[in-house]
Amino acid sequence: MKKYQMYIGGKWEDPASGEWFETLNPYTAEPWALIPRGNAEDAARAVQAAHRAMHVGPWPKLNATQRGALMRKLGDLIAANAERLAEIEVKDNGKLISEMRGQLNYIPQWYYYFGGLADKIQGSVIPIDKPNMFTYTKHEPMGVVVGIIPWNSPLMLVAWKLAPALAAGNTLVLKPSEFTSASLLEMMSLVEEAGFPPGVINVVTGLGNEVGPALVEHPQVAKVAFTGSDATGQKIYEGAARGLKRVSLELGGKSPNIVFDDANLDNAVNGAIAGIFAAVGQACIAGSRMLVQESVHDAFVEKLLKAASTIKMGDPMRDDTQVGPVANLPQFDKVLAYMEIARKDGAHLALGGDRARRPECGKGLFVEPTVFTGVRNNMRIAQEEVFGPILSVIPFRDEEDAIEIGNDILFGLAAGVWTQNMQRAHVMADRLKAGMVWVNTYRMVSYMAPFGGYKRSGLGRENGIEAINEYMQPKTVWMSSGDEPYPFVLR
């Protein structure tokens, strides 16, 4: 098995503990690589390296145009190595090669976009109401940023944090999930090749509870950016608050995917499958609550079950596979547990409901695509994020009922609306409490479009021009051209 090292201060380093742990291939259910088991000492070394790079050496001397050029070079290198990196991610988290190849070929756009944005961050001159004053604003980097990355799409979610943070002039310490660390460690060789100064980008691997708090609470860290569950996000928020650090959190979802009686049902079925069975439901934007208008409920469910029953499972490295394994053993156990919870709460199992025992799934961590009907919105299966291929079908009467059910949730990340009535589409988009609403489509993202949620789905936004504001702080400068008047009053 390949034995990886961490990347700290521009050097490949063994963990201070002298320990490594195995990372599992979810398709074979066998280990394939050794990941360094970092600890608080490694976290401190990485933060100190990032802090030094922020204040001394080449990085603070680069102008914004030069930073952008480095980022675009990194984008080129990722594009040139996309196939290799995609294969590593498939081996590490079981995602389909077709999806990961698409992601890796798309990821360079984040480095191109934010690299181009780096030298277009402008302040403003304020026509101030005070005499003899020239007043202007400028935007400066925050300092050391900690990025904590989940296991479902590691390199894409690295880009969502790394690209805007670098464009703003920050340095970073990245902590990948212990289940999927390999692809980011492989990418660091490309960071070296691109010519980033030592310490600008660092990677510490290890178990979350052994590394995470040490990074989040380190006094030299200015900002924490996290993607993951709402429960872990809350702990990170609490830890960061003790140091009054800036925080952005992209957390969970329990998104409604709403089908009205005038929708194109075939398109809506495709949208339902994309929303919950693509990526094995392991997406924060998963459309896990399928709200269907009563008048078309039975017809829609019939079409959905017919389509879902033909899904091809198996080796994620095959281009024709449609659903691969669950990414890791704890998540596999969690998904199966929620199937039993749904049954006990009275939901009707219409499809799936167990681990997959198809010959093509072998010993892997596979779960059958599962559909529950007769679901009430107060059931746990409708309220709690499963992060797996389980769809809850919930009937509704009319627009008001759909809005009430759709918003009756602690989360507010995304929503889908299927209708041919554009007036209704705009009303639904306005009234659904979600950071993103898709109309007659589902599961679309772009480096140009803000991504984030309401309520327990998080704080702040990733992607789009708004994202760079999460990694900068404004400064106001006052310049006097007159004599200083009486000093004992606020002017």
Automatic annotation (TrEMBL):
Keywords: Oxidation, Oxidoreductase, Potassium. Residues 12-477 form the Aldehyde dehydrogenase domain. The active site is at 250. One of its GO terms (molecular function) is oxidoreductase activity, acting on the aldehyde or oxo group of donors, NAD or NADP as acceptor. InterPro entries: Ald_DH/histidinol_DH, Ald_DH_C, Ald_DH_CS_GLU, Ald_DH_N, Aldehyde_DH_dom. It comes from the Bacteria. Belongs to the aldehyde dehydrogenase family. This is Carnitine dehydratase.
